[in-house]
User: Which sequence fits this backbone?
C-alpha cells in the first residue's frame, strides 16, 4: 500500500468511528480491556498517531497498527473480511466505506 492509500483507509476508518460516535482514548497499555467500547475508542485514537508514523516513514509500524484496528473491527463484528480486503486494494479497485455491522459494502443494494 502507498502512503496515500494508507491515509485513505485511515480516513475511511475515522469516518466510521465518528459516524458511530465512538470516542478517542489512549487505553492503558498495562491493563486488560474493560469493555468492547473501550477497545473501539482506543482504535479510533490510534488513527491519529498512524498519520504521524506515515509522515515519519514508519510504514512497518503503520501496517501493524492498521492490521490491529481492522482485526478488532472484524472481531467485534463491525466489518466483513471482504470489506477489509476491499479497503486495502489499490485505488483502481474501489474502497467502500464501512457501514453497519454485517452489511456487505460490495453489494449495490
Assistant:
Amino acid at each position: 500500500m502507498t502512503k496515500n492509500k494508507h491515509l485513505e483507509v485511515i480516513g475511511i476508518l475515522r469516518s466510521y468511528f465518528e459516524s458511530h460516535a465512538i470516542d478517542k482514548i489512549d487505553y492503558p497499555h498495562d491493563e486488560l480491556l474493560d469493555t468492547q467500547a473501550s477497545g473501539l475508542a482506543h482504535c479510533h485514537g490510534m488513527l491519529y498517531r498512524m498519520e504521524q508514523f506515515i509522515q515519519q516513514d514508519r510504514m512497518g509500524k503503520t501496517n501493524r497498527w492498521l492490521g490491529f484496528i481492522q482485526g478488532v473491527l472484524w472481531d467485534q463484528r463491525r466489518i466483513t473480511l471482504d470489506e477489509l480486503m476491499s479497503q486495502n486494494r489499490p485505488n483502481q479497485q474501489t474502497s467502500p466505506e464501512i457501514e453497519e455491522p454485517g452489511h456487505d459494502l460490495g453489494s449495490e443494494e
About this structure: The chain has one domain: 3-88. Residues 101-109 have pLDDT under 50 and may be disordered. The chain is about 55% helix and 0% strand. Helices lie at 3-19, 36-55, 59-75, 81-88.
